[in-house]
Amino acid sequence: EVQVVESGGGLVQPGRSLRLSCVGSGFNFDDHGMHWVRQAPGKGLEWVSGISWNSDSIGYADSVKGRFTMSRDKAKNSLYLQMNSLKTEDTALYYCARDKQGGAGLRFYGMDVWGQGTTVTVSS
Amino acid sequence: DIVMTQSPDSLAVSLGERATINCKSSQSVLYNSNNNNCLAWYQQKPRQAPKLLIYWASTRESGVPDRFSGSGSGTDFTLTISSLQAEDVAVYYCQQYYSSPLTFGGGTKVEIK
Question: Measuring CA to CA, which residue among A98, A23, A47, A55 is closest to residue B103?
Fold first, then answer.
């Protein structure tokens, strides 16, 4: 079964850090670009970050640029999101999603496999 | 950044009737290299992850019923559900993947009248 599974969410104080993980299975992880998309409670979808198949191209939303870092580990079929200097407005359900293509040069094609998400709550 | 604007915010349609959702981008998302529009549609049912319905503005994802269709080009796009079924109750989002940062529309909630 083709799937991605997120982990690492939790409750964290403003200004602290958290690292999210996503493991892909049932497909060739190296063939696909990957994304993080978040959804604040009761709100719409917001793209957070995307990475090409070979990590050469990484893009970020303006709202997280300079605070979040996306990376991937080929050997572990894993994707990561290092979140620093967290703010209360970062509170959301964070989804990991697979792109239909490799994402070279941040040329993406649409997100065809989604996880169930991991919840991040930033609060004092 | 490309701003995606959806309309209406919500709509109620009778079972078996047509539902139409509009999406407008603040600049063209036509990719000249392949003459395709970098526009996707997603469906999100309550308490579920989003699901890809349409990409390249009009290409249906594998397994998606043919009552779902996408159209449009440049900056104006439409998602049509030709005959609404009970299981289509959801929020629908358009998204551009023409340039980073990728951006979503605000969503359209579809309900049964």
Answer: A47
The residue of B98, B100, B104, B109 whose CB has the most chain A CBs within 10 angstroms, and thus the best one to mutate to test that interface, is B100
Cβ distance of A111 and B50 shorter than 8 Å: yes
Token readout for A112 is 């065809």
Half-sphere CA count of A14, side-chain side, radius 13 A: 5
pLDDT of B33 over the 90 cut:
no
Q: Which residues does B30 contact at the CB level (< 8 Å), separation at least 6?
A: B36, B37, B38, B73, B74, B98
pLDDT at A65: 97
pLDDT tens string B39-70:
999 999 999 999 999 999 999 999 999 999 99
Residue B43 C-alpha, separation from nearest chain A C-alpha, in angstroms: 11
Tokens of A103: 């994402």
Contact at CB, B51 and A60, closer than 8 angstroms: no
- Interface check B98 vs A, CB under 8 A: no
